[in-house]
Amino acid sequence: MRKYDAIAIEKLQKGTSIIENNGIPVILKPSPGEERRGYLDPMELSLMGDHWAGRSNGVEPTEMPPMEVLIPIMRENMGFPNYNLNTVEIHTKYEEITDSGNKVGLWRYYPRKSEKNPKRPALVFFHGGGWIGGSVYTVENFCKLIAELADAVVFNVDYSLAPEKPFPNGLNDNYYAVKHVYDHAEAYGIDPEKISVAGDSAGGNYAAAVSLKAKDEGTPKIAMQVLIYPAVTMADAKVEGYEWSEEFFEVSEEHKDIIKSGLLSLGRPSKMEENLFLGAYISNEEDIYHPYVSPMLAESHVGLPKAILAGAEFDGLRVHTEFYAKQLKEAGVDTTCIRYKGMTHAFIDKLGYVPQAEDLCIEIANAIRKL
Predict the structure, then answer these.
(1) Which part of the chain is the Alpha/beta hydrolase fold-3 domain (predicted)?
(2) What is the domain partition of the chain in residue ranges?
């Protein structure tokens, strides 16, 4: 079930253009319902009030309730009810692994018709949610659609959340989940040379960090990293050449108040004590500068797996996304960077409501098929 016409997907697939940012090419995906510059996509705009990423409650930091009260509220409000767009039967399996020392749920999805193929590609996905929330269920339909389109086995990791399990718990859960998949590739019927990792927002941070850790450890072998509006630096940590400014966002006068009232807050440099998510995720302020927390700060990005980075035009993390693409490309990594015009943070949560989420599934699946 879709809330848009198939022609919207055709426009997104065929109506792209190339712009340059930070000296690298960025694929600009059009907004099917809005051609003007600086305007939100109409469907995205209509849904914003119902999605956690687009809400602004007007509460000043000094009025915030204590973390133990606030975090359950935030968890409850994360995600968006999306649609299953599969057209073939998808098998769903569940298991629990403990390789990291935590009990971690590992879901996997694959088309029934490909069950006897012993060399399928695989994707291991890490959901978003600011390291403190989010759910495998929010991204389940997104993962299942990629499984169908790529004829792949897609794993969905139910990793530990902060503050109950701070850094490096979630990172280790995700790293060892990928290693588990790699070590048991034959049993899962997948090709160990074609295992990719992916994630959105905090999950994108994990995908980047897991790729760095896998390079450092020499295992598992990762063929591709897919970073969807990833957070790649924390608080006010940065490297030479990196800057963040609202001036980087072209905003129409008509939508200025909506966009600047909260949509650009993610990724904006801040002090650690001002960042609820970060304060819950890391216990030691020095960890801000750890490359597994802030992948932008890694000593070297040479030798990392090929990458797809996808960002939303009106998301503060777009600056992270496109700068990290520059870092990877300059390190010799095969890198593709995509910007979705008119879109905001967490748009993949709205699969079936906005065509951009489905289009990104197509882009990821096509890349997996080419591995």
Answers:
(1) 123-348
(2) 6-369
Question: What is the DSSP code (8-state) at residue 221?
Answer: -
Q: Which of 211, 290, 345, 359 is catalytic?
A: 345
Q: What is the pLDDT of residues 199-211, one digit of tens each?
A: 999 999 999 999 9
| Active-site annotation holds for 184 | no
Among the listed residues 315, 320, 349, 359, the single catalytic one is 315
Region 256-263: mean pLDDT is: 90
Give the single-character DSSP code of 11.
Answer: H
Burial of 271 (0-12, 13-18, 19+ CB in 10 A): exposed
pLDDT at 64: 64
315 is catalytic: yes
Distance CA 208, CA 228 (A): 10
* 3 state DSSP class of 25: strand
For 35-65, what is each residue's pLDDT tens digit? 999 999 999 999 986 666 665 443 444 566 7
Could you please report the per-residue DSSP string of 230-279?
Answer: ---S-TT---TT----GGGS---TTTHHHIIIIIT-TT----GGG-HHHH
* CATH code linked to domain 6-369: 3.40.50.1820
Q: Which residue has the tokens 């489905």?
A: 358
- Please say if 345 is a catalytic residue: yes
